[in-house]
Amino acid sequence: MSAMTLIARDELRLMRRNHVAVTAVLLLLLLTVVAVATAWTHQQGIAETRARHQRAANAAFEAQPDRHPHRVVHYGHFIFRPLSPLAAFDPGVDPFTGNTMFLEGHRQNTSNFGDVLQSSLLVRFGQLTPAFVLQAAVPLLLIFLGYGAVARETERGTLRPLLLQGAAAWSIVLGKLAALGLVAGVVGVPAMIGFALIAGQPGASIGPIALIIIAYGAYLALWSVAITLVSTLVRRRRDALLALLAIWAVTVVLLPRVAPDVAGQIYPLANRLQTDVAIARDLRWLGDSHNPDDPHFARFKADVLRRYGVTRVEDLPVNYKGLLAIEGEAITSRLFDRYARESYAAHAAQNRMVLGFGLLSPTIALRQVSMASAGTDFGGHQRFLEQAERYRYDLVQRLNQLQADQVSYADDTAVDAGADRRKRIGADHWQRMPVFTFTPPTPATLVAAGLQGLAIIAGWLVAATLMLTAATRRLGAK
Amino acid sequence: MPLWMHEAQLLLRSRWAAAALALLAILSAAAVAAGMAEIARQRGAIAAIAPAQAEDIAAVRAFVDRSKDGGQAAYYSFHPTWDAPSPLAFAAIGMRDVAPYILRVRALGIEAQIYDGDTFNPELALPGRFDFAFVLVFLAPLFTIALFHDLRSGECEAGRARMLEAMPGAGRLWWRRAMVRFVAITAALTIPFLAGAIWSGVAIGAIILIVVVAALYLLFWIGLAGLVSSRGRGSTANAATLAALWLVLVLIIPTLANVVINRTNPVDEGAQIALAQRENVHRAWEIPREETMRRFYANHRRWSDAPPLTEAFHYKWYLAFHQNGDESVAARVRAYRAGLERRAAAANALGWVLPSVGVQALLTRLAGTDLTAQLAYQDRIRAFHRRLRAFYYDYVFYDRPFGASDFDKAPRYRATG
Fold first, then answer.
1. A22, A40, A340, B107: which has the fewest C-beta neighbours closer than 10 Å?
2. Residue A22's pLDDT is what?
3. What is d(CA A476, CA A446) in angstroms, rounded to the nearest whole number?
């Protein structure tokens, strides 16, 4: 049996004898089970509720009576954001974003009723999810189990005899590292089994799952190496423990909170009021449908008349009011898209900056990989917002087209007693409108979104390993 | 030189301890500065409302002035409301980074407007704010653990403990040593806060209360450190045990409690309110208009002497069915709100037994940044919206012309309601 295996066995035996360590491992396993179970049932509950609400909204839309199409434009539609299959493992921003949106003509509403606004202050303490357990709690446990690995030998003076007996420094350090890595595997596996159960859901695909497993594996490996490294560099056990606790507090607790603050101050977002006012301003500039003398709409009218070869809108074969609605919607939607693009760009700049802090804190990088691969990062929410806007535009324009084709201009402008009845079109039209279905991102998109973060963790792992190699060499030279 | 001065010198001569205290002071100062920058940004956004609003309303004024139709004025005019941060908000941002603190409303159905959010980056909000409350609740205990875990065991390990305890007044030695560390850590933590609070004009009573609470919270952790140390194990075991306790008390129990509270107090009504209100509003197009007016006048006698509807579209009918729609979901709105209040109350109850939650709850309550404050802001919006409605109804129901000068008579939101 090699010296390294002996050392690893000895280290594991010592951990087993340490009652505090055993209790901590058991508690952590319990915590993992609780986190997997609650995250799983929570996700099932959310998915079920949103699906139920979506069915109710679809049913309400289709059950509308005969109506004027423009009434339906304002009746609008509610859509609910489906949860991504891996959200039970890492819900990411899901609790922080609204999960329902009201879609209507020429207005862009916010997504509302997010968990964060419906929860007590406790929601800001963090989310008990398998991802949180692996990101924060497992490294702390590894610190408790591993801080003394080499420092203990140095402090007690048992290192030198070991070396003199012929054990190579690298086999000592590697043995300790192997023992710690094994423990990391043992405590990480239940969360990963939970993850596998979650990943067994329909819709989850292998690429993002593999990326998440690799990233968490690399992250726990990084902590194992870093703990062994500090334990090798520091001469006293207590100093090793305090140094590691400080590293943990800074990288896991402090920096993830500082980074967003910095990013938020450097790249401020325009708030809704300013955006709405700016859109209204641009709209007046582009074309004000309220203004009878507006140049844009005067030109539009002339174009339409020329195209159909008539001189009055009354003579058009289609309803001019419907055409106006189509044109108006096209103008406002172009503005919505432009301002949304600006806002998304600012969000992206903020998130890139936070990821940059991953160079200081691997936990930040891991969170990014985890959320991006699970489809629960801001990119995932943005996909929902973009698809919602596309659906909204398509729905509203279909209804406007119905107004142009199915409602006569004469009826549409009439105000007599029977006019209301004549303006309405059949209820069957609403049933023929497409329902909103969220197109999930492709596995390649999710993987690509997570690669940057993974690269940072890999860089950290390589750097820590190189440093451990150097420290081991020094240990042997003593 | 008094003995406690010697102790203070001893403390600062330890490189570990001095570095820890300096770091805590820096973090506290940074958190106070970050909180103040965020609140300054929010105040700036609130100050920027007026010019933007003036521009927006001028355009509405220009085209409504042609028709003099109060209904159009009501339909197209958005009126800003805002939730000005309290002087203390910098110390505990609470929900202010995710909950809207500016919301524009118009005199249509309030239930379709009041739950709207503002733009924020959820990825930035996810980890929580870096503010004084965070430094106090999350970080200060770690520093306390670092300074107190080896208070006695360190001397044992250095072989001095027996000698020290054999000396007269030994009991007071540990007491004095603990006092010096306690005062040092409290000072490092609260002096930046004091500076920020005085600069922001926080009431003296609130300042004192927070400093006392901060000190008590530290004492809790010191007591815990003493309890763990009294079991007579080594410094290292003490540090490990205390850090594990920190993880449980500050991270795990609160997150677990959040799951339990949200599960036992479901609030499912939000989406239902939105769906039901829309249904009831749009139903008005399908039923006789007189029925809508009868129902509206039954609840609002003040306008019941208005002239009856004619064949043509009239905004009074439109506004009436919007209000009917709001009133039709009043029970659900109450249930929704009661659910939110139950959640907040449950968390506050936990605060009485769990110091980390208690301190956070107290700070956000004093700062007016918690869920209760958010609900109070919604109440102010609703009160303002009632005034808006009454203002426009007086024009629309009696066909009083709404001229350019009438825009200036519209109710103004007052930050205090």
1. A22
2. 82
3. 45
